[in-house]
Specification:
2 copies of one chain form a homodimer. By secondary structure, the first copy, chain A, is mainly α. The first copy, chain A, has a domain of 81 residues: Winged helix-like DNA-binding domain superfamily/Winged helix DNA-binding domain (Arc Repressor Mutant, subunit A), CATH 1.10.10.10. Chain A is built from 6 helices and 2 strands. In chain A, strands 1-2 form a two-stranded antiparallel sheet. The radius of gyration of chain A is 19 Å and the shape is globular. The two termini of chain A are 25 Å apart. At the A-B interface, helix 1, helix 5 and helix 6 of A face helix 1, helix 5 and helix 6 of B. The structure holds a DNA duplex (30 and 30 nucleotides).
Amino acid sequence: MDKKELFDQFVAFTAAVHQVTHELTQDVKIDNITPVQYKILEHIKVSQPVTPTEISDCQHMSLPNTSRELRKLQERKLVEKMIDTEDRRKHYVCLTADGEKMMKEAFACIEERFQQLIQHASKKDLEDIQDALNILNKKVFQPKL
Amino acid sequence: MDKKELFDQFVAFTAAVHQVTHELTQDVKIDNITPVQYKILEHIKVSQPVTPTEISDCQHMSLPNTSRELRKLQERKLVEKMIDTEDRRKHYVCLTADGEKMMKEAFACIEERFQQLIQHASKKDLEDIQDALNILNKKVFQPKL
DNA sequence: TCCATTACTTATCATTTGATAACGAAATAA
DNA sequence: TTATTTCGTTATCAAATGATAAGTAATGGA
């Protein structure tokens, strides 16, 4: 087994993943949301409640810039902040009802495209895919330990 | 087999792929290259010779903007253009020796990090990973058809 | 020949994103 | 109490990216 070969395969694979991700998410109709703002909303959606610092770390952006984007999202009533009662420096960010609705629609659109992508897969194919996802998650993409 | 469940798994997986890709490529020492320029160089590296129109399509950017970035890369002697002798409207873009060197170093750096990522994988693990990559490529991420 | 199309360029402008300094309020440690 | 640290904000500036209009040159077809 050639590790170099595996690397080449890995590079091609990640390129394909990025390509497909782009196709699935492009032009998802969410009015006037910038890519960065969408990423933030997506992150809040799956991890809420979440603090600005956590968003900053996970999205690899500075806290001031995170704060700015959160303010814009808040002004548009897509997210809301709450102050931790224990430690009043901490803010918890959640989606508002509007924000939930928008993200739900976005995910529905993406899921529809995804289902189209695998529409021709047999029952066995689907199981194989699931197994493959599990293996790669466990052996390669697993976030630290 | 629940297709909805598979979608959720897929979303989590692609998020993990993007995360790992970011970790592998962040701070790859290539002096003053912007992310977009790096993507272009990467694309040229694996597909050269390539035309501006092809880059424009694959990188999802307009031809004028592609042209601008290529000019900057050309000014820095990282890429060079040749005119098609058959159809003199077409330009073929390639990496210069400097460009090749820079990309080779970048890939070496990324590969080193990748090998670290799978350093604890057994021989069987590596085979499993390879199989999983093949399955996903074929069943899901395969570019059209 | 004239016209339409293709491939690419230049120029310009708006928006998004990144980086940094300076500040405030709350918690914590001395 | 007085530091010091943490979490978050505002403000400002620079750079990267996106969008669009206009232009050139080559091709190919009528």
